[in-house]
Amino acid sequence: MISNIFYFIVSLVLMFQGLQLLGEKKSPLGTVPDDVSQSLEASEWTGVFLITWSSLAIIVGLVVLLGNKLIGALPLIKVANGLILLTYSFWVIFKGRQVDVLSSPTTQEHDHH
Predict the structure, then answer these.
(1) Quick check: 47 and 83 in contact, CB under 8 A?
(2) Residue 4: what pLDDT?
């Protein structure tokens, strides 16, 4: 029973992370200087994948709980959920938000007389 609860929690976490990645393109949470750009195409594709996968996982989980159909698929999806969450975590740490410097930064001279 507890593994089923954990299954749905992981699936919902993946869904909300996907929604956050898609929302980041429309309204970014942070601010960046004018001479820096962020490439969000990878984030968009990752967000679409996470939403699609987690939706499928939730639907299969509900079908299994409500009717004991597709019960053989549930352990495979549990393992896949864990692997996707692990892969996503490493992606966030090492590859997620990379910035590109568009021009060389300008130095501001301070007048201290």
Answers:
(1) no
(2) 82
- Let me know: does 15 contact 51? Beta carbons within 8 Å: yes
Q: Which amino acid is located at 59 in the chain?
A: I
4-52, pLDDT tens digit by residue? 888 899 999 999 999 988 887 777 666 666 666 666 777 788 889 999 9
Provide the token pair at 34: 């004018």
Owner of token pair 């942070």: 30
Please count the other Cβ atoms lying within 10 Å of the Cβ belonging to residue 41: 8
Predicted model pTM = 0.73
d(CA 78, CA 11): 9
How many CB atoms sit inside 10 A of residue 36's CB? 13
Q: Are 65 and 11 in contact (CB under 8 A)?
A: no
Could you give the CA distance from residue 61 to residue 56 in angstroms, rounded to a whole number?
A: 8
